[in-house]
Sequence to fold (326 residues):
Amino acid sequence: MWSNAPESSVDADAGVGNAGDTNSPRGRSMTKLSVVVENADLLGEAPCWRALDQRLYWVDAFAPAIRRLDPGSGVVTSVSLPVEIGSFVFAEDGGVVAGLRTGFHRIALETGAIELIANPLPPDPRLMLNDGKCDQRGRYWCASVHSDFIGRQAELFRLDPDLSVHRIDGGFIIGNGIAFSPDGQRMYFADSRDEIVWVYDFDVDTGSVSNRRVFFSTAGIEGRVDGATCDTEGNYWCALVHGGAIACISPSGRMVERIAVPARHPTMVAFGGPELKDLYVTSATALLRPEERDNFPDAGKLLRIEGLGARGLPEPLFGARSSNMG
Fold:
């Protein structure tokens, strides 16, 4: 069941400052970066703003739990899970569907109980489902990863509203960075270890992808692309894990902004708030090297960046068409 985390709170003044380390392409006067939740996650991931209750949800993948923040009161509640979680989506029927170490499951959000839908993974306990997002027609796209990064065993799957599972692509090291352009014509997918963000041509009506090509490479820059999202202008915002920064990549594949954050390993980003203008950032402590711990006391905490001049897209619901986003 949900439990309160009294040590977690919203602090409007924590870590405030100019978060950008490049000039803004939008001509904004000030950007505010805050530590929103003080309680640190081992591996924070999958932030998602739920319009229905105006709450920010995210997970701790390694201390398996789904967390919920009420930005108004600062109250954080958590529900523990029996197995590691990579990502989750809200469903049209009000439930939750998630990618876990053991495949696709329904989750009872009040108790943490899980129910298997399907497990498309080969029989290796070190494989698990990882980063995932719904497209505008309510299909849940989810990538996999081998916990030891052995070989190119990561794959890309699609769970349809009829609960059928389809293997879409493979041969990756770690699947991350899934996002969809606002016009529904592009799907982005990152292989963090290969330092590549791919872009596919996407048919939103059929759910098919084609013409995979390189969109952006992190070779030669600090950090690798982890979790990502798109804004209303089609820019691709991503966490640069191992690089202590958030990047904004234009639709043409050019990095137009890099914003430093006080966590060495930011893991994923999501727009939230009533107008979807705040960028929430999850981060990790589990990835810190011993020599990094003293330098990054805010590692693993939930961060928020305000004043970016960008606006996010509502997250589609599993099983819902785009007109029923929530």
